[in-house]
Amino acid sequence: GTPVARAARAGPIALLLGNGGAGVRPELSVAASRSVSVPLSGGVESLNVAVAAGILLYEVTREP
């Protein structure tokens, strides 16, 4: 997906978060208008879903 900082944020949104291995179930992902990702650096393989949710909520609520 698009890095979250670059995704357009207009109007109401819903965040669908999946697990690090399988992601969001296919029947849910077809309802999404876009997919975003949290860029990881170094040797980080994945984030805890609560941490990822916090990052995403911060990004979608901050002023541009």
Quick take:
This protein has two helices and two strands. The chain is mainly alpha-helical and 64 residues long.
Protein described:
By secondary structure, the chain is mostly helical. Helices cover 27% and strands 6% of the residues. Strands 1-2 form a two-stranded parallel ribbon. The longest helix has 13 residues, at 49-61. The radius of gyration is 12 Å and the shape is globular.
Key structural traits:
single chain; 2 strands; 2 helices; mainly alpha; 64 residues
DSSP E strands, number: 2
- The fraction of residues assigned to DSSP E strands is 5-15%
Q: Sheet with the most strands? A: 2 strands, parallel
Distance between the termini: 20 Å
Overall average pLDDT? 80
Helix content: 25-40%
Gyration radius over CA:
12 Å
Residue ranges: pLDDT <50 for 5 or more in a row?
Answer: none
Q: What is the number of helical segments per DSSP (H or I, 4+ residues)?
A: 2
Class per helix and strand makeup: mainly alpha
